[in-house]
Amino acid sequence: MRLLRSRATSYWDCYYRASYPKRSAYPGVAFLHQLEVWAS
Length: 40
Prior knowledge:
Layout: H1 2-16, H2 27-39
């Protein structure tokens, strides 16, 4: 999970930071957060 979060954050930083100024609003990161909530 840590690797997926790292890659999603890196992708957001490179390509979508202008569209989603808040990292938590980026759909990839939001999806991973929801998976972690479901898993706990």
